Amino acid sequence: MIREEKKFTFRREEMVKKQLEARGINDNRVLEAFRKVPRHLFVNEAFIDKAYIDSPLPIGNNQTISQPYIVAEMTQELELTGEDKVLEIGTGSGYQAAILAEIVEKVYTIERIHPLYIKTRSLFDKLKYHNILTRYSDGTSGYRDEGPFDAIIITAGSPKIPEPLINQLAIGGRLIIPVGSKDTQELIKVYKDESGIHKTNLGKCRFVQLIGEHAWKSPKKT
Ligand code: SAH
To answer: Is residue 40 included in any domain, yes or no?
Structure first.
């Protein structure tokens, strides 16, 4: 067991150096979070030996845990200070939420697939991430009672930016979302100030679909 842990610590450090630092991730809080979170506990057991490779991996229910670099890039672009209130849409494996929870005091995360919601909630409890609040619902409507949020991250691809999420973004807040077709998207960063919202395109990306009232329609009830 101890030998196993050492192996994962080593792989995690290699991931930080070769996949993140070498590609320009330079926010120390982000790098420190990646050094801490045990990514191998967030993947299915069948993929435990692949947990630190430069790639997304399946997590069941046709969903994926994102490639480490994209998680890091999105986190860095949120420009977090320790006091930010953060909302994530698309809990999935919980890895992105755990990275956020290492940096800020409180993370709210929403998942629409019940088995993933249940599985990840119990993982957060096991790993003692008591500062992550989970919710089972359609995240395209946001988290009305808890807003406004200083940062909102959507980890699934959408045809447009869901209006309720823009409304729940604080003045001075940042929102990151993949926007485009079902197959390919552009990563869009939104900054909100008194005059309205300002968008920057961070480049191409590929995410699973954001399904809900303000995004893609559900193909069937899940
Ligand atoms: N952040 C996750 C990525 C998971 S993939 C991780 O670190 O592992 C995207 C997730 O978004 C899937 O679990 C999918 O079920 C979820 N999702 C899609 N549409 C959603 C919606 N409207 N509300 C909440 N979650 C949604």
So the answer is: no
**CB-ligand 1 contact for 111 (6 Å cutoff):** yes
Kindly state the percentage of the chain with pLDDT values over 90: 94
Q: Is the residue at 73 inside a domain?
A: yes
> What is the arrangement of strands in the sheet containing 169-180, beginning at the earlier edge strand?
132-136, 106-111, 85-89, 149-154, 169-180, 185-193, 196-205
Range(s) of the domain holding residue 81 = 55-205
Distance 197 CA to ligand 1 centre (A): 24
Where b means 16+ CB within 10 Å and e means fewer, 110-127 reads bbbbeebbebbbebbeeb
Asked if pLDDT for residue 53 goes beyond 50, the answer is: yes
- CB distance 210 to ligand 1 below 6 Å: yes
Atom 4, ligand 1: which residue's CA is nearest?
A: 92
- Domain holding 159: CATH number? 3.40.50.150
Q: Is the pLDDT of residue 210 over 80?
A: yes
Q: Is the pLDDT of residue 131 over 60?
A: yes
| Closest ligand 1 atom to Cα of 110 | 24
Give the contacts of 129 (CB within 8 A, at least 6 positions apart): 94, 97, 98, 101
Query: Which residues, 6 or more positions from 9, have their beta carbon under 8 angstroms from its beta carbon?
Result: none
Across the chain, mean pLDDT equals 96
| Total number of domains in the chain | 1
CA distances from 198 to 19, 150, 186 (A): 29, 15, 15
